[in-house]
Amino acid sequence: MEELLSWRTEAWHPLTVHFPVALLLFATLAKLLAVFLKPQPAAFWHRMGAYLLYAGTVGAWFSIYTGDLADGIVSRKLCDPTVLKSHELASYNLAYLFTGATVLDLSSMSDWVKRYSRLLSVVVVLLMLAGSGFLAYTGHLGAKLVYEQAGGVQVPPSDCAGF
Predict the structure, then answer these.
(1) Residue range 60-74: mean pLDDT, rounded
(2) Tens of pLDDT along 114-154?
(3) Could you write out the DSSP letters of every residue in the chain?
(4) Residue 1's pLDDT band (boundaries 50, 70, 90)?
(5) Percent of the chain clearing pLDDT 70 (strictly above)
(6) CA distance 113 to 125
(7) Fewer beta carbons under 10 A from the terminal one: N or C of the chain?
(8) Is the dihedral of CA 135, 20, 85, 7 positive or negative?
(9) pLDDT tens track for 38-53
């Protein structure tokens, strides 16, 4: 039981990454719906997508922070550390894209931007779609790190001693 409670630094990253993944993907879907619906239901989807976007963007940056903590531990044990570097770069790309979408979405509340609100909504959705593409690619690379190179995984001895 004590081993279960002893947290390793590299274990924080998978714990923090999945929540923002879901938030950002659902935010993209909600904003996409808001662009194509009539004004009344679109307002609900726009607002819901905005809240999911804001929370997901903060979560993405927190996941990058925990990923940086895990990097120093995991990178020394990998057969091909270039996958880890690609994973890191893709995660920064998605975080910047969603941050840009967040800034533009927040600026749409300003009075001087109201006349461009439709165009701004489309640009926000395009940024979010690009971010979602990087999100899928980043997840693919993260899965390669874990399942092909055992990144961050404690591999038991061949005789399974201790279990």
Answers:
(1) 93
(2) 677 788 989 999 999 999 999 999 999 999 999 998 888 87
(3) -HHHH---GGGHHHHHHHHHHHHHHHHHHHHHHHHHS-HHHHHHHHHHHHHHHHHHHHHHHHHHHHHHHHHHHHGGG-S-HHHHHHHHHHHHHHHHHHHHHHHHHHHTTSGGGGGGHHHHHHHHHHHHHHHHHHHHHHHHHHHHHHHHH-TT--PPPTT-TT-
(4) very low
(5) 93
(6) 17
(7) N
(8) negative
(9) 878 888 999 999 999 9
Let me know: does 31 contact 49? Beta carbons within 8 Å. Answer: yes
User: Looking at residue 64, what is its pLDDT?
Assistant: 97
Whole-number Å distance between alpha carbons of 145 and 71:
11
150: left (phi over 0), alpha (psi -120 to 50) or beta: left
CA 53 to each of CA 56, 71, 107, 128: distance values in angstroms, whole numbers, following the listed order:
5, 26, 14, 9
Residue with tokens 């461009």: 116
The model carries a pTM of 0.88
Distance CA 28, CA 105 (A): 12
